[in-house]
Amino acid sequence: MHPANLDRVTLHQIFSNLTITSENREEWCRNTMEDSPLITVRNGSQVCSSWRKVITADPMLWGRSMDLNILHAVTNEWRAEVERRAGQSSRLHIQVFLGQNKDLVEFTKAFLSEYWPRIQLLSIEYENLPYAAWMESAWQEGRIWEIFRRPSPNLIYFSVECANCPALEFVNNFPMFKDEAPMLRYFAATIFRLNAQATWLSRLQRLRFTSAFSALELLRILDQMPLLEALGIYDNDQNYYTTNYAYEDGEGEGHEGRDDVEDDEEERNDHEGDEDHPPDDEAPSQKCEMVDLPCVVLPLLSYISIDIGRLASSFAKYIDILDHITPASDCTLVLGGRARVEANPANVETARRILRTYFESFLKGQSPTSATLLIMDTAIHIGMSSPGRKFSFNLEFTANIPQAGSFLDALSIARAFTMVKEFILAIEPESNILKSMNITAAVAMFSSLDALESLRASPSTLQYVLSLPLKPNQAGPFPSLKNLSLIHISKSDGLDDYILHLFFEHMKPKFGFGALDFCLDLVASAETLKCDLSFLERYNGLKVIWGERRLWARRKEQIYLCGSGNPGILNFNSKVV
């Protein structure tokens, strides 16, 4: 059927799916002007008379496509046409990407001011600016935020984000929306202070914000949010003496009597070093943690993301929060931050317990298809994902982690890896870490990789995995493997060819008739490899790739197809310079 002959219902549905929504607003916001929903709607109205009738007859299509980057760039006539098509009553979906463009900021401010009561979805994203540029950028002017003082009768979705928000004081000293946002369901704003007493919190389904609260305060906030489905918290790396000051209209946020920031600073300086006034690198909320924390049940909460920031003491605060909430049974966790946690047995045991609890929760109803497992002396990086779901657990410690291998024990759940197709695996130094891993747990994990197609592993870790006993009746490891990449090859020592002899010996059941469709990626230059791999010539069809990847530069790779009659090309001993 020719597009011009589409019926009105189908045509309307197509263009309705192209408007700005909570699901696609980030994609539209970052794409080029030609991909903007507003451009698509306007161009569609000019295709033919039948399309024009459908598109111009519905103000919603125009009202839900308000891209301010486009409206600011076009002619006054173009802009007037869009505003006219949107009518006087349609709800508006607005997006804008702001950089250091003062004219665009002024236009955005004026547009939001004029149409504020009609806005249903608002997505503002700021350019990822260096710290100095952030401080000097035009949008940092406080006047633009005055718009958010107003009641928001129709606002459902509110997102104001910056990819690299530095630790600055919050930009607002007033309660958002004058505490009147009866329709609000999604709030994501990392540069605004959250009013703990806001009535609209109780109706939120999704919340992402920057926190200066103690564990007790956060739990009290969450306790009034029974409809919450997704929670994202960024710690602001500042203590509550300077960030939880009272609002200018007298509505405080949890620390009554602290009406003046300068008074807070003077008091802190006067008592510096006192036990009752901890320095910045200690947990300012520790005084609150001495009291009993309430348990909060959030039956719909299925996603938690916590960035603990840079303060090591924040680790205890957010662990307390995770310990005192009961989310949905299949809740997943994304935990990380720049803080270096003290490597004492108590912290390690707590981290391991949280890891296992939320990992088991993530697996309920999930079949992860990709996994990342990086364990070093002082760092744990664990990631699992399935379509539409992600689990991530990333922590760095101040010293070597006691019994680091026991973190692997927490992952030894039989069904966890059975559907994994992509796996990144590195445990270094393996001699220290793997000794502390339960051998039964290791076998349960690594012998269940029947669906694995792509493995990126360090040579030493791969050697350990190959040393484990197979499951009963298992002919060989990795029966579905199609790609092996060796990572973390020592530049000083080169690659020990023993590991590849061992690997291909173990893979005999799979490679008995050649290695067609199998790829060995050495992820290193010929000079780094320093070994003779010409024995691989016997595996007809095996594709070998080498060549070092460099940051910000295209990889210069070389490829050899084994069985081609030139095995000497794989003798990297002769290529050492």
- How much beta, percentage-wise? 15-25%
Distance between the termini: 64 Å
Output the radius of gyration: 28 Å
> Uncertain runs with pLDDT below 50, 5 residues or more?
26-33, 240-247, 250-289
Helical content class: 25-40%
- What is the mean predicted local confidence, pLDDT? 78
Count of helices?
22
Helix-and-strand structural type: alpha/beta
Silhouette:
globular
How would you describe the overall organization of this protein?
By secondary structure, this protein is α/β, with parallel strands linked by helices. Among the domains are: 1-166, no CATH class; 509-577, no CATH class. The protein is 29% helix and 18% strand. It has 22 helices and 21 strands. The strands form two sheets. The chain has a 19-stranded mixed beta sheet that branches. Strands 8-10 form a two-stranded parallel sheet. It is globular, with a radius of gyration of 28 Å. Mean pLDDT is 78; it is low at 26-33, 240-247 and 250-289.
Give the SSE layout.
Blueprint: H1 8-16, H2 25-30, H3 37-44, H4 49-56, H5 59-63, E1 66-67, H6 68-73, H7 76-86, E2 92-98, H8 102-115, E3 119-126, H9 131-136, E4 157-162, E5 186-189, E6 206-211, H10 215-222, E7 230-235, H11 240-243, H12 261-270, H13 286-289, E8 296-297, E9 303-307, H14 314-323, E10 325-326, E11 332-336, E12 340-341, H15 345-363, E13 370-375, E14 379-386, E15 389-397, H16 406-409, E16 422-427, H17 430-433, H18 439-446, E17 454-457, H19 459-467, E18 483-486, H20 498-506, H21 508-511, E19 519-521, H22 526-529, E20 543-546, E21 558-561
Parallel strand pairs: 1-2, 2-3, 3-4, 4-5, 5-6, 6-7, 7-9, 8-10, 9-11, 11-15, 12-15, 13-16, 16-17, 17-18, 18-19, 19-20
Antiparallel strand pairs: 13-14, 14-15, 20-21
